[in-house]
Amino acid sequence: MTGDLSTNEEAGKIRYLGSGDDAIIRPGVVLVAPSHEYDHFLMRSAVFIYAIGLDEQENTIVRGVVLDHPTAFTIGEMSPNVMGSLSENQLFRGGYDGSNTAILLHSAGGGDGPVKSDSMIGSSGIFEGGIVSAMESADAGLIETNQCKFFFNYMQFTEKELDNMFAGVEDGDAWVSLEIPTDYVLNSDYERGQLWSKLRNSIREIRISA
């Protein structure tokens, strides 16, 4: 995990955006599962929302990746097209959906960034894509490999599915929306559910101090 901050200091880095029906869901937020969530991928998970758009039927679709579900493989082992120093990065399981595609999230985009990619995801400091320039930048020493994180597939939700998820409250425990530091999102050292546990502790501290 990044740093040796106390729980109080960690909570100070996190912005609480509500829980249950009051939660704000937009690109760049992280959704933290309640303890009663039993879906295989969503239980003990922290899900980074990277896109919201419309499907072919004009229905709103929300896409995210589970941040703390590592696989046993590096991205280079699963995708030979990823070469150089980035090929040693751990591959994370983003979710159920995606037709076996790989997703790159990183913190090196933008107008002044060395990695060519689309605009920032919300206000998160995170960008998507630009794998070729990311490989070139990492090998040239322009970026650190820990600025990049790879995911296999993603989670996709309809508005109704999210409404049902966030409406589920047991003993005051529900899904929570947060904004968290960039290095929390991109940390590739997480074990299964490790970020979830860290953020749950921070949520408790935020609620106690409110």
Descriptive overview:
The chain has one domain (7-202): VC0467-like. Strands 1, 2, 3, 4, 5, 6, 7, 8, 9 and 10 form a ten-stranded mixed β-sheet that branches. The chain is globular. The longest helix is centred in the last third of the chain and has 16 residues, at 194-209. It has 210 residues and is α+β, with helices and mostly antiparallel strands. It starts with 6 loop residues before the first helix and ends with a helix. A hairpin with a 5-residue loop joins strand 3 (46-54) and strand 4. The relative contact order is 0.26. Helices cover 23% and strands 29% of the residues. The protein contains six helices and ten strands, in the order H-E-E-E-E-E-H-E-E-E-H-E-H-E-H-H. Residues 1-7 have low confidence and may be disordered.
